[in-house]
Amino acid sequence: MAKKSELTSGVSLMVKEIVKEAEGNMKKTIEVVKKEFASLRAGRATPALLDKIMVNYYGTPTPVNQLANISVPEARLLVIQPWDKSSLHEIERAIMKSDLGITPASDGVVIRLAIPQLTQERRVDLMKVVKKKAEEGRVAIRNIRRDVNEHLKAYQKEGKISEDELKRSQDDVQKMTDRLIKEIDGLLTIKEQEIMQV
């Protein structure tokens, strides 16, 4: 029969793994929030604006960045240069269909996207969207925290971990949750400043 110290070290290793996995999932949530923020147009030209645009390339939905070189020659201009000239029209069509609200200008070789100044109304709408995305991120992180805590409580009920270990682990998870929610708040502040910049 295994010694008690071996059992407890195995269990605390399990607890650490659960907490570590939760942290990984929370960090993935932050990456999703960052990507969502990057794809929102805030008056500046950035290749990330095109991340969600899928082009029908020979019947296969393909991201624009896999079909073309995207450059930012000026603060308010994106230039898309397709590697396969025959995909130019499809890229143009995909941009027109998207929710970017930008009309592409093509010269048959490259597509230019002039990023217009944001209207005050559009800024207000964007602020709502950004706040909603940030809140979705916070909720996702809190849900991960809840799941981990339920997992830990189950261990405690089964007698695998002590009350003290449960409390300590839950405190660690709470600190991690607070830290990562603060990170989302920081990302939100930066994005809001970007949107309100005239």
UniProtKB/TrEMBL annotation:
Entry's Gene Ontology BP terms: translational termination
GO cellular component annotations of the record: cytoplasm
Residue ranges constituting the Ribosome recycling factor domain according to the UniProt record: 34-196
Top-level taxon in the UniProt lineage: Bacteria
InterPro entries attached to this UniProt entry: Ribosome_recyc_fac, Ribosome_recyc_fac_dom, RRF_sf
Stated family: Belongs to the RRF family.
Job of this protein: Responsible for the release of ribosomes from messenger RNA at the termination of protein biosynthesis. May increase the efficiency of translation by recycling ribosomes from one round of translation to another.
Protein name, entry field: Ribosome-recycling factor
Species classification: Bacteria, Bacillati, Bacillota, Clostridia, Eubacteriales
